[in-house]
Amino acid sequence: MGDQEVKLLGVWASPFSKRVEIALKMKGVSYEYAEEDLSNKSPELLKYNPVHKKVPVLLHSGRPICESLVILEYIDETWKSGPSIFPEDPCARARARFLAKFMDEKCYPDIWKIGGSKGEEEREKAIEEATEHLVTLENELRGKKFFGGDEIGLVDITANTIALWLVVVLEMVGIKFLLKDKFPVIDEWINNYLDNSIVRETLPVRQDLLAYCRSVFQCSN
Amino acid sequence: MGDQEVKLLGVWASPFSKRVEIALKMKGVSYEYAEEDLSNKSPELLKYNPVHKKVPVLLHSGRPICESLVILEYIDETWKSGPSIFPEDPCARARARFLAKFMDEKCYPDIWKIGGSKGEEEREKAIEEATEHLVTLENELRGKKFFGGDEIGLVDITANTIALWLVVVLEMVGIKFLLKDKFPVIDEWINNYLDNSIVRETLPVRQDLLAYCRSVFQCSN
């Protein structure tokens, strides 16, 4: 299938859009990128994702694929030439899918709760909940460079939310050393992950994301 | 891999457990079944699904797989002999995964909202939201016998929630003809789906589920 027919509708500050960009680059797929304005969604976004009206949407030869985890499966199945995003063994694949889902259903909402928390008590509770999930990830990573083993895989890509978005939110609320102090394995993984050239060139600049998060949460920290 | 080493931790009234049972039977996999008491979870459940502590859990040669959609992927990848649960074409696979996710994230919570709604206004709102999602499914099914085409596939199996749980909840709240009146395509699909011998022998008896839902929602309808 021709790479020239690949288009991504995304948003620069969305960890979900960035997952798809990282996967396409890992596979060496050329693509056109269209930045969406979520306050004024494009007719293309509304046409191709009428159910959720959300980014990312991948268009391949005009056919839309929606939802970042679904798109990552599609990319791995469609472009076999690059490195595999999913492990070969069915049991390891299941574990990776489980953790990717866990990232979206548990970890990401908690990050947003920390950012949006009002007052000390609410913030403490949000951090406590997030901490419980971080323990799971810390144990999962122990003894490995990446969630995917020696190379970046599905869980690493979905964990964009931890590697940058959580870090920025923690900085915003004034506890930027939480990971370094309490989760040294995750902290080391973040360094390894951000050191990857594709990840580094794809994720937003930290200061830009920090400014964005401050504006979203109307926070003056 | 030996079929004799397959065990499922489930709950009879859970549409998620029933998905896994249907898939295992479709593939002709023999398995041991252990009914869980969610008010007194077994040490096995807590050991093998420490993150969510929920059913279903599939144990294969002692290795646990959690989350029903992840388990369905695992079953299809592991037992190749039976009919495929997922479509062959990557684009069709992506659509099936999208709809399965949609079923869990949008449709199922709405069914529970209808069941748990207090008063006329709250119920009307819940039904209105569910109706919007049912329109999506009605359009998806038009011209097809099953979501999977001529045969049952991933989306049909995940749509247990529609075929029985929604039907029972609608009966419980006194609007059992909603589907027949407004969603004839879904209504016909339900008949076709429940007519499948594996589905029929696997899903709970309707009256039992109705009694269960009434007790859960403490509803005297």
TrEMBL record, chains A, B:
Root EC class: transferase
Pfam families: GST_C (PF00043), GST_N (PF02798)
GST N-terminal domain ranges (all copies): 4-83
One of the record's GO cellular component terms: cytoplasm
Example of a GO biological process term: glutathione metabolic process
Xref: Gene3D superfamilies: 1.20.1050.10, Glutaredoxin (3.40.30.10)
Domain of life assignment: Eukaryota
Keywords: Transferase
Enzyme nomenclature, EC number: 2.5.1.18
InterPro entries the record matches: Glutathione-S-Trfase_C-like, Glutathione-S-Trfase_C_sf, Glutathione_S-Trfase, Glutathione_S-Trfase_N, GST_C, GST_C_Tau, Omega/Tau-like, Thioredoxin-like_sf
Residues that span the membrane, as ranges: none
One GO MF term attached to the UniProt entry: glutathione transferase activity
Ranges of residues in domain GST C-terminal: 89-212
Catalysed reaction, written as an equation: RX + glutathione = an S-substituted glutathione + a halide anion + H(+)
PANTHER family cross-referenced by the UniProt entry: GLUTATHIONE S-TRANSFERASE U8, GLUTATHIONE S-TRANSFERASE, GST, SUPERFAMILY, GST DOMAIN CONTAINING
Protein family per UniProt: Belongs to the GST superfamily. HSP26 family.
Name the record gives this protein: Probable glutathione S-transferase
Species, as recorded: Daucus carota subsp. sativus
